């Protein structure tokens, strides 16, 4: 099952409101979801924060292998930049580990 953290549209025709949810990537945009992780209101009042995120649950699901959609990634980057930083560090560590394995195999062959 491919998990994805993406937005689910709510609200009216000219007054959109989005919930940030964890869902199977094969489900439709407004279909069934596993867990609600926050909300995003693009047309909210200027003095209010336009989004609310459950930081701990987002980190948990990312560790379980969930993937952020592009728009949700930009919202998380604005609200909790440390989450994106840890994702990038994890990717770099994985690439570095693969690089070290390749070097070790090359030395073994030579």
- CATH homologous superfamily name? Ribosomal protein S16
Approximately what portion of the residues adopt beta-strand conformation? 25-35%
How many beta-strand segments?
5
CATH architecture: 2-Layer Sandwich
Report the principal-axis shape: elongated
Largest sheet: 5 strands, mixed
Q: What is the CATH first-level class name? A: Alpha Beta
What is the CA-based Rg, rounded? 18 Å
In the residues, how many domains can be counted?
Answer: 1
| Structural class category | alpha+beta
Instruction: Count up the helices.
Output: 3
The average pLDDT is 90
In CATH, the topology is named S16 Ribosomal Protein, Chain: A
Strand order of the largest sheet: 4-3-2-1-5
Brief characterization of the structure:
The protein has three helices and five strands, in the order ββββαβαα.
Describe this structure in words.
- With 110 residues, this protein is α+β, with helices and mostly antiparallel strands.
- The chain contains three helices and five strands, in the order E-E-E-E-H-E-H-H.
- Helix 2 (70-79) packs across helix 3 (81-109).
- The N and C termini lie far apart (41 Å).
Write the layout of secondary structure elements.
Blueprint: E1 3-11, E2 16-24, E3 35-40, E4 51-53, H1 55-63, E5 67-68, H2 70-79, H3 81-109
Parallel strand pairs: 1-5
Antiparallel strand pairs: 1-2, 2-3, 3-4
Helix pairs in contact: 2-3
Descriptors for this entry?
110 residues; alpha+beta; 5 strands; five-stranded mixed sheet; S16 Ribosomal Protein, Chain: A
